[in-house]
């Protein structure tokens, strides 16, 4: 949830740390702070609010030091105050620490520490005092001893005021990456802030401690045994993490979709055989044939992409498929055996609930595979195979391009399984063709952005809103409602069209906005009847429908057209106008589109 960054090298640390925090702000943005050390003195600054307010404070002073750590916070323990902002310091002022995670037994540790004067309400301040208690001249040993007593999750970077040559980093459940530059090192919660400086990285695993010194990196486990780590190369381009002239990352990422979708499917579609090849599955044909159940585990937007996958696996491959919200999965005794294939779907690859659910599925003997965006993320490394979705850095909190690419990859998996079972080559080829046509068709939807902006202005002042869809468009309705609520704060609900009359229709009154996805597929007539029902109650209808459908205007007050495509592929196209609608509504309401209140991009706590 929080973002942490550290620097050691020959440059002034403070500006680099601030730049890094800006890149990490999507992980948390209620307060921020940084500390550098120079001549055995800590110099620190903290502020409540976004990184801009920290930057303002930094303009008023010069912070000298070639080593430092910084943090952007999403509050878990303690309110949003300067005192609770990181870095935290030991009571004697000698050790500073930034922490992402939760120390579950902090009360017990407080008892162990006895009489310490705390400045904040955070669990993190207890941890830095614990490290100080064990410090006898060697910071790594002190961190190791302290962590042996900790229950919970952490990604930490620790610094001693008298040691300008080393930073100590450790992880358990919260990600940490070390970037290797030219005579300098960066440490961060994810690779995004490193991209501007290096693409050579070392990923820490749970239970590892790194001593990052000017002379090099040494890595250990919590038993003080040295571990050899590989340096990996990240092929993300730093330019992809810039707004590139767009007002917001979200708008830029919506427009990225045709290109990154091509990145996702490139080399993976076999038009001639009407199939897909996703090598990362790591299963033999025999193992694939034995799969009798698929479970798709995800949270939020990723779970709506998973719902599209369910339709595809069942229709193309005939494999019973369930979608499980990760936070529920492990508490409901799921039925799993050695023929169950479980996919964890996650943009960040760090979502705590998804990760925990995958671990549970693995414990029960399933094949676990990842469909992940962030390269080297925990889910990518803990699963026994899977596929990167190649959406590139997604920095807006509201997910857009990752959703599209997740849906694309799930369709490809369904196609691959389908063709190895019952799916005909002709149908396979039609799906391949439909998938290949998506970027051009998506372009046609994006061209309508001015019209969608105009429509958004008509809907911006409503306080409540319904999204309706049926079949493959039900997940589209779910995603449309989530996008609108999370960035505009308009209360939005989504229902399968046929479900409305079982309760929610009681809420409808004259002028109540209903956004309906009613494209020309097998459920068009059913959806039409549902719209008749809402229209009869005086609802105001915005229809997303297929190009050329003039008849829909009999029911709809406003219409957005999408190009025709195969039914299973429709959700990829039909979601794009809803992303734009949510975006323009939020902008017109002056919302902080990229950093909506109370949310963080990567949810690394349960
Ligand atoms: O990183 P993940 O894909 O695992 O994240 C899952 C959800 O937290 C995420 O999709 C969330 O719902 C977004 N805010 C949606 O825009």
From TrEMBL:
Its EC number is 2.6.1.16. It is an enzyme of class 2 (transferase). The active site is at residues 2, 601. GO terms for biological process: carbohydrate metabolic process; fructose 6-phosphate metabolic process; protein N-linked glycosylation; UDP-N-acetylglucosamine metabolic process. Residues 2-215 form the Glutamine amidotransferase type-2 domain. Catalyzes the first step in hexosamine metabolism, converting fructose-6P into glucosamine-6P using glutamine as a nitrogen source. This is Glutamine--fructose-6-phosphate aminotransferase [isomerizing]. It comes from Candidatus Magasanikbacteria bacterium RIFOXYB1_FULL_40_15.
């Amino acid at each position: 949830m929080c973002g942490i960054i550290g620097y050691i090298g020959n440059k002034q640390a403070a500006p680099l740390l601030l730049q890094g925090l800006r890149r990490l702000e999507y992980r948390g943005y209620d307060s921020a702070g940084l500390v550098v050390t120079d001549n055995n003195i800590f110099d620190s600054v903290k502020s409540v609010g976004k990184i801009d307010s920290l930057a303002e404070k930094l303009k008023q002073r010069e912070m000298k030091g070639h080593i430092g750590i910084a943090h952007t916070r999403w509050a878990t323990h303690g309110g949003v105050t300067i005192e609770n902002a990181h870095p935290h310091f030991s009571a004697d002022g000698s050790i500073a620490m930034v922490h992402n995670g939760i120390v579950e037994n902090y009360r017990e540790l407080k008892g162990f520490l006895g009489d310490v004067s705390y400045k904040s309400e955070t669990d993190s301040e207890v941890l830095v005092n614990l490290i100080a208690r064990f410090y006898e001249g060697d910071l790594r040993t002190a961190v190791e001893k302290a962590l042996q007593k900790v229950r919970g999750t952490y990604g930490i970077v620790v610094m001693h005021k008298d040691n300008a040559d080393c930073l100590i980093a450790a992880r358990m459940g919260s990600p940490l990456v070390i970037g290797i530059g030219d005579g300098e090192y960066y440490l961060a919660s994810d690779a995004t802030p490193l991209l501007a400086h290096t693409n050579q990285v070392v990923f820490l695993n749970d239970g590892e401690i790194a001593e990052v010194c000017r002379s090099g990196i040494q890595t250990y486990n919590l038993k003080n045994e040295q571990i050899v780590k590989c340096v990996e190369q990240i092929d993300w381009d730093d330019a992809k993490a810039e707004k590139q002239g767009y007002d917001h990352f979200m708008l830029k990422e919506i427009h990225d979709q045709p290109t990154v979708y091509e990145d996702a499917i490139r080399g993976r579609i076999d038009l001639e055989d009407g199939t897909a090849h996703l090598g990362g599955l790591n299963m033999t044909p025999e193992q694939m044939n034995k799969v009798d159940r698929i479970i798709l585990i995800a949270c939020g937007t990723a779970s709506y992409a998973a719902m599209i996958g369910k339709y595809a696996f069942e229709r193309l491959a005939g494999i019973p498929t369930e979608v499980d919200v990760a936070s529920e999965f492990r508490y409901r005794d799921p039925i799993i055996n050695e023929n169950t294939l479980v996919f964890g779907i996650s943009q960040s690859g760090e979502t705590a609930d998804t990760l925990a659910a995958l671990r549970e599925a693995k414990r029960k003997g399933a094949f676990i595979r990842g469909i992940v965006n962030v390269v080297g993320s925990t889910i990518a490394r803990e699963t026994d195979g899977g596929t990167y979705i190649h959406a590139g850095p997604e920095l807006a909190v509201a997910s857009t391009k990752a959703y599209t690419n997740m849906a694309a990859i799930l369709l490809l998996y369904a196609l691959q399984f389908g063709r190895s079972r019952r799916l005909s080559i002709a149908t396979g080829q039609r799906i391949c063709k439909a998938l290949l046509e998506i970027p051009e068709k998506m372009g046609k939807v994006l061209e309508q952005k001015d019209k969608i902006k105009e429509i958004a202005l008509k809907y911006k002042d409503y306080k409540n809103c319904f999204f309706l869809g049926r079949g493959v468009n039900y997940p589209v309705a779910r995603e449309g409602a989530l996008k609108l609520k999370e960035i505009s704060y308009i209360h939005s609900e989504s229902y399968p069209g046929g479900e409305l009359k079982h309760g929610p229709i009681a809420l409808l009154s004259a002028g109540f906005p209903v956004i309906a996805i009613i494209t020309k597929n097998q459920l068009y007539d059913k959806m039409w009847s549902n719209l008749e029902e809402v229209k009869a109650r005086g609802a105001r209808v915005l229809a997303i429908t297929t190009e050329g459908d003039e008849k829909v205007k009999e029911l709809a007050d406003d219409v957005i057209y999408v190009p025709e495509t195969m039914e299973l592929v429709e959700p990829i196209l039909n979601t794009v106008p809803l992303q734009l609608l949510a975006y323009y509504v939020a902008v017109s309401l002056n919302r902080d589109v990229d950093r909506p209140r109370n949310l963080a991009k990567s949810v690394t706590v349960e």
